[in-house]
Every structure is written in C-alpha cells, then in structure tokens.
Design a protein that fits this description.
Belongs to the G-protein coupled receptor 1 family. The chain is built from 12 helices and 4 strands. The protein is mainly alpha-helical. It starts with 20 loop residues before the first helix and ends in a 37-residue tail after the last strand.
Length: about 400
C-alpha cells in the first residue's frame, strides 16, 4: 500500500521536506494502538477456534482464515509505516521490499476471498439447509480455505517482479524508496483487475446473497411460528402436550434467534470491509486519472488508518455480537471466574445427546448439548412434580455420579 501512494515517475526532485513532529506523533501512536489491538485480537480468534472443540464450525474456520489474513495486513502494511514516519524512506532493503509488498497484497486478497467464502457458506446454510448437510461441512471448509490461500499466493507472485528499490537524490538528502518497476500507465490494468476481483465483485455478490438471506430470516415465517399455531390448536386437548410443545417452541425460537445473530455479525464484517476500504480504493482510482496524484500526507494517513482498523475491528465485532466468542475470549484470558458445576442447585435428567441444527454450519451457536443447559433451568423443569425430580443431593446418587470425571 505504501507503493501505490508513492510519488510519480516524472517528479522534479527538489528539497526533501520531513514530516512534521505532529504528524509523526499522531501516525505512530495510531498505528501502534490499532495494530497492537488488532494483532492481539486476531491471535485470540485463532487460538479460541483451534483450542475449543465446540467452536470448530465451518463458518469459524473461515473466520480463522480471515484472522490470519488480517494479521498479515497489520504486520506487513501497518508496522513498516512506523519507520516510514520516522525516517521518510525505506529501511528494509531490497528483499524487505519484495517480501513486505508480497505479504501486503496476499493478506488483502486472502481476506477478501475469506469474506466471500463465508458469505456463500451462510447463503447455502440458510437458504438451502438440505444441501448444507453435504456442502457446509468442516472438511469442505478446510479444503476451500486451502484453495483460497493457494490461489492468492500464486496470484500475488507477480509483485516480486513489479517492485524494486529506487534511490532518489534530493537537494538536502538521498533517500531509498520501495516502488514499482513499471510506469503508472502499465500499472493501471493490474490495479483495476485487482480492484474488480478482490473488492467490487465480492461486495456485489455479498449484497445479493445477504439480501436473499434476509428474505428468509426476517420476512418468511419461521418454524417457531408454525409450532406456536400448533400449540394453540391442541390447547384444548391436553395440558401436558401444550407444555411439551411450548418447550419445543422455545428451543426453535432460540435456534432462529441464534441464526439471525450470526448472520448479522457476518453482515457487519462485510459492511465494515466495504466502508473502511472505500477511502483508499477511491484515492487510488482518482489518482489513476489525475496528471498529478493527490497525496496529502494527512489524507493518506487517514486512508491507511481505515485499512488497519478494518483488520483490527473484526475480533471486537465477534466479542460484541457472539456470546460463544465472548465466553471463549474470557476463558482464554482468564478474565472471568471459572464456573464450577454445583449439582445440588439443579434438577435435570442426565442425558448425553447432541442436537444438530439442519443448517449444518450455524456458527457460533450451531451445536448444543443438554449438558450446556445445566447452568439454567429448562422450561420443562417447571412442570416436573417436585417429588419426581432427580436431585443431586439425593444420597442414593452418592458415589454414582461425578461430573468432574471425564
């Protein structure tokens, strides 16, 4: 990204003007703050998904891929700007120029492809739940991620041949810059191809697919509505049947709410990707048609900060909009007290069955077990006769049940 905003080939070299102290302080502070938060957050996302079994869902695999790509952007594009603000030129040498430029574009393109992948996965899971049983699987998600990184890695190889270091002699100083070998006119087709495939088309596809998803989730009747009407129909026959249907309605409504919440979270990620990348993309498009590019240092800094924010904000979104991620983050940081199961406080039937939603890919609330409900009383507990409830305080269970034993 530094290369795109470099000076023109036909510039007239005069006296080099250093960045002001105000610019240096503001740019270094913002880059360190945003990149620091982003690096820690994305590392936590990767660790949470890899170390927590219930978090290993197809959608979360794509979020891990996105986190890795964001880490590349923050380290390869963000951190080198600190030295640029301090010294004005390039200090990492020839191989640093090639490698850092390569990883910049690899992270940018891989993040775009990861967003496209989980958007398609959400569309299949919500709009075609039967097909999702076969298409939205964990193993298939891993294969797609491998293909995404293989494709973007090969695509970005061209940057090894497009950039080089150049020495420029000013009246008061000689500086080295990491710039492109080709002229602006030859670079335009390369840039617009990159712009189309890794920004414009993914956003157009996401707009269409999330529109179809919204129609299913927010406009069409949900299964819970059907069960509610069924409950009203059978109310006069049996109170016990109504209570059972009421419990099923609560579970179905919870699943629908979870599906909506996950989709909202991913949609927010896409919207922020579009908005935060727009200033930089617009700047490069405009400069492509101007005889003298607009390179105001403060506006260029604003465009770069937006890009770094896009790579840093995703873990914050997960924490704010996903209960599963929020709980996992707390456990990873040991921020919250460790909950110890107190069997005496609840009365439940001990069953160890797993309930899997038809969408096969609901993330992060896709899978649930009855053991997960130990922390809160279920609606069915309210209707169990007191004498028939199984209490863990019962002396007859002593020595038979130990929840702390694997």
């Amino acid at each position: 990204m530094d290369n795109v905003t470099s000076s023109t080939d036909n510039q007239t070299l005069g006296e080099w003007t250093y960045f002001s102290m105000e610019y240096k302080v503001v740019s270094i502070f913002l880059v360190i703050l945003i990149c620091g938060i982003g690096i820690v957050g994305n590392v936590m996302v990767i660790l949470v998904v890899l170390t927590t079994k219930r978090m290993r869902t197809p959608t979360n695999c794509y979020l891990v891929s996105l986190a890795v790509a964001d880490l590349m952007v923050l380290t390869a594009a963000g951190l080198p700007n600190i030295s640029q603000s301090l010294y004005g030129g390039w200090v990492y040498g020839y191989f640093g120029c090639l490698g850092i430029t390569y990883f910049q574009y690899l992270g940018i393109n891989a993040s775009s492809c990861s967003i496209t992948a989980f958007t398609i996965e959400r569309y299949i899971a919500i709009c075609h739940p039967i097909k999702a049983q076969f298409l939205c699987t964990l193993s298939r998600a891993k294969k797609i991620i491998v293909l995404v990184w293989a494709f973007t890695s090969l695509y970005c190889v061209m940057w090894f041949y497009l950039c080089d270091i150049k020495e420029k002699i000013y009246d008061n100083i000689t500086l080295v810059f990491c710039e492109y070998k080709v002229s602006r006119n030859r670079y335009l087709p390369i840039y617009f191809t990159d712009f189309a495939f890794f920004y414009a088309l993914p956003l157009m596809l996401a707009t269409v697919l999330y529109g179809l998803i919204a129609r299913i989730l927010f406009l069409n009747p949900l299964p819970a509505d059907v069960k509610e009407s069924s409950t009203k129909k059978w109310k006069t026959e049996s109170r016990q049947r109504n209570r059972t249907l009421s419990s099923n309605n609560s579970s179905c409504s919870s699943t629908a709410h979870s599906r909506r919440q996950v989709t909202k979270m991913l949609a927010v990620v896409v919207v922020l990707f579009a908005l935060l990348w727009m200033p930089y993309r617009t700047l490069v498009v405009v400069n492509s048609f101007l005889e003298k590019p607009y390179l105001d240092s403060w506006f260029v800094l604003f465009c770069r900060i937006c890009i770094y924010m896009n790579s840093a904000v995703n873990p914050i979104i997960y924490n704010a909009m996903s209960q599963k991620f929020r709980t996992s983050f707390k456990k990873l940081c040991y921020c919250g007290p460790q909950k110890v199961e107190k069997p005496a406080a609840y009365s439940v039937v001990l069953t160890y069955s797993a309930i899997k939603d038809m969408s096969n890919g609901e993330s992060p609330d896709h899978f649930t077990t009855e053991l997960d409900e130990l922390a809160t009383p279920t609606p069915a507990d309210q209707f169990l006769p007191t004498s028939n409830r199984m209490s863990f305080k019962d002396p007859s269970l002593s020595g038979r049940v130990d929840l702390n034993t694997p």
